[in-house]
Amino acid sequence: MTGAFGRAVLGIALLSAMDALIKAMAARYPTFEITFLRFAFGTLVAGAVLAVRRPGWPTRETVVANSWRALLVVITATSFFYALGRLPLAEAQALAFLAPVFIAFFGVVLLRERVDGRIVGALLVGFAGMAVIVHGSGTSGGERSWDGIAAALAAAVTYALSMVMLRARATRDRVETIVFFQNVGPALVLAAPAAAVWTPPLVSDLWLFLAIGCLGTIGHLILATAFARVEAARLAPLEYTALIWAVALGYLFFGEVPSLQTLAGGALIVLGALATARR
């Protein structure tokens, strides 16, 4: 079980690095184009993994279920990438931290998972940390980007649903197959919208898009192996560790200095994550 928690934390760290690169790209390229290129390059990486591992042909049930999940991934990625371009990195992550609450909720409702008092307490502590951050952001005097906030919240709901579906499929399908569908499906869906707003990318930026695809694909591969071993509700609070990466990357690459509220909320978030990881 400890290995699953470690994998989840590593996967989240890689995805946080991907988010930072996407935020950098958001100033130069439309959201649909960024999202398409993320999944197009991700498809190349996932396809290479698939070719090496050779998990076999998927069943009809696998194709249908993972295709539905791919639609949720499209909504999640497009919404969150838009939010990254409108909000500070830490604030976008903080708003997205409603996702673990929804993951635990959907895990109980859809997967009939059991949630004990410690898990509920850990979720509440993490949620309190998120609330502290949002309150501090709201009193900073800056203009709020309500469309960015709405996009981040929408991403939280659809991300939670997609992760619960990941938990359901990870016990039936090979991880390589799941992640391949998670990339190729959104790439196909987003091809037309991306073409409509296409801005020719610089050659130097293509390498960054390749890095985005690698980070996203490898991060989700690692997360999928974790969700195959541990209930979704137990892994949910570990999503909060992304705030640590968001604060660090926001400061290093975008000069975003975290407020005292962000640091206090981050402490609560880490406390909640540690509580759920205990045996």
Automatic annotation (TrEMBL):
Q: Which InterPro entries does the record associate with it? A: EamA_dom (IPR000620), EmrE-like (IPR037185)
Domain EamA residues, every copy: 9-134, 148-275
* Keywords from the named record: Membrane, Transmembrane, Transmembrane helix
Localization, per the record, is: Membrane
What highest taxon heads this organism's lineage? Bacteria
Q: Could you tell me the membrane topology recorded for this protein?
A: Multi-pass membrane protein
Please list every transmembrane segment annotated in the UniProt record, as residue ranges. Answer: 36-52, 64-84, 90-111, 118-136, 148-166, 178-200, 206-228, 235-254, 260-277
In its keyword annotation, does this UniProt entry include Thylakoid?
no
This entry carries the following GO cellular component terms, namely: membrane
Give the matching Pfam families: EamA
Signal peptide per UniProt: none
Name the predominant localization: membrane
The entry's family comment says: Belongs to the drug/metabolite transporter (DMT) superfamily. 10 TMS drug/metabolite exporter (DME) (TC 2.A.7.3) family.
Q: Which PANTHER family match?
A: ACYL-MALONYL CONDENSING ENZYME-RELATED (PTHR22911), SOLUTE CARRIER FAMILY 35 MEMBER G1 (PTHR22911:SF6)
Identification of the protein by name = S-adenosylmethionine uptake transporter
Originating species? Chelatococcus caeni
Q: What is the lineage of its organism?
A: Bacteria, Pseudomonadati, Pseudomonadota, Alphaproteobacteria, Hyphomicrobiales
